Structures are given as C-alpha cells and as structure tokens.
C-alpha cells in the first residue's frame, strides 16, 4: 500500500468513526428530548445522591405515574419540596399517613427531610441515558473548560465526518468539472465501412 493510499484509508476510517460517534450522540439527544412531546419529563442528573446506578450527567426520562401507584423501593422524579424550582430523583422509602412520600438517595445516609406531596410527583424513571447530559452538568458547576472542550471535539468530529474524498484534490475551483483536465479523451466514432 502506498503512502497516499494509506492516508486515504486513514481519512476514510476516521470519517466513518466520526459519523458513528456523531450519529450516536444525535440519537441519544433525540431520545432525551422527544419523550417530552408525549408528556414525559426529561431531567439531567446533577448530584451523586443516586450513585452507583445513576450518575451525574445522566439523563433520566420519567413517564407519568399516579402517586398512589408508587411503592417503597421505586425511584421517583418529583418537584423538590426543599428546593422549589428544582427536580429531585430519589427512591421512595415509605408513604406517610397523610399521603406524602418519604424519599432517600441511594448514596445518602439519611432520608430526605421534607416529605413529597402527591401532587409533586412528575413520574417514574423509565429510561436512563448515560453521559449525554454531562455538558449541562459541567455548565451548572462552572466547569466551562470541559464544556468548551466538548464543543471543540464536536466541531473536529463534524469536520472529519463531512470531509469528502476529493478534498485534497487542490483548490476548490480546480475541482469543478469545467476546470478539470480531461481524464478521458473521447474518440470520434467512425462508422465501420467494411464490405
């Protein structure tokens, strides 16, 4: 294999891998957003309270559920009663006589101090998408270098994925069919005048 052929194969392989990575990311993002159109809730996990199963940067997709159907041990996504405007993904420990739920994070030593009213239940997590929410998590923590690095890597992948085979064939105007050298010469057809 010659050096140009090896370089061509390397670019081809890099392009295919970049397209696979970008395609996987696009599908994961769509999976985390589309359920919202059907009344589900999508949330980026921003704490380690549910480690080791649910990690910061994961996206949890929760489908509707009635508060009365929740049983101890089930994870639940709720409006956080202790921090209005925030969501909380914890496990149900028990139901109080007044109908409120007591929750606790798997990695937490103690139960949550504020019971969850039944009306605050958003849903039962039914799908977990790993890592796709990391840029949102990093941004929320002020880790802007990681967000910037993610953007740079994404742009590099886009450039590699969009590279065409004829990109190293010289200036763009030279690749236009009018400006190319003739690769094939046409021979005028001469009728066969035998016999």
TrEMBL record:
It comes from the Bacteria. It is found in: Membrane. Residues 172-183 have a biased composition (Basic residues). GO terms for molecular function: serine-type endopeptidase activity; signal peptidase activity. The keyword Transmembrane applies. GO terms for cellular component: membrane. Keywords: Hydrolase, Membrane, Transmembrane, Transmembrane helix. Residues 167-195 are annotated as: Disordered. Coiled coil: none annotated. GO terms for biological process: signal peptide processing. CDD domains: S26_SPase_I (cd06530). Its main location: membrane. This is Signal peptidase I. Its EC number is 3.4.21.89. The chain crosses the membrane at residues 20-46. InterPro entries: LexA/Signal_pep-like_sf (IPR036286), Peptidase_S26 (IPR019533), Peptidase_S26B (IPR001733).
């Amino acid at each position: 294999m010659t050096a140009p052929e090896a370089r061509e194969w390397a670019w081809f392989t890099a392009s295919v891998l970049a397209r696979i990575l970008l395609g996987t990311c696009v599908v994961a993002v769509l999976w985390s957003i589309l359920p919202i159109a059907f009344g589900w809730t999508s949330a980026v996990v921003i704490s380690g309270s549910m480690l080791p199963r649910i990690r910061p940067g994961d996206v949890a997709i929760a489908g509707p559920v009635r508060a009365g159907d929740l049983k101890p041990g089930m994870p639940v996504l709720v409006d956080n009663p202790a921090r209005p405007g925030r969501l909380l993904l914890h496990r149900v420990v028990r139901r109080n006589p007044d109908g409120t739920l007591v929750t606790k994070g798997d990695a937490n030593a103690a139960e949550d101090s504020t019971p969850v009213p039944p009306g605050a239940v958003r849903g039962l997590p039914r799908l977990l998408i790993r890592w796709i929410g990391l840029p949102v998590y990093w941004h929320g923590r002020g880790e802007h270098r990681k967000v910037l690095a993610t953007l740079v890597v994404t742009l590099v992948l886009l450039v590699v994925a969009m590279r065409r085979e004829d990109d190293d064939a010289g200036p763009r105007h030279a690749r236009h069919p009018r400006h190319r050298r003739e690769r094939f010469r046409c021979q005028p057809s001469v009728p066969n005048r035998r016999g």
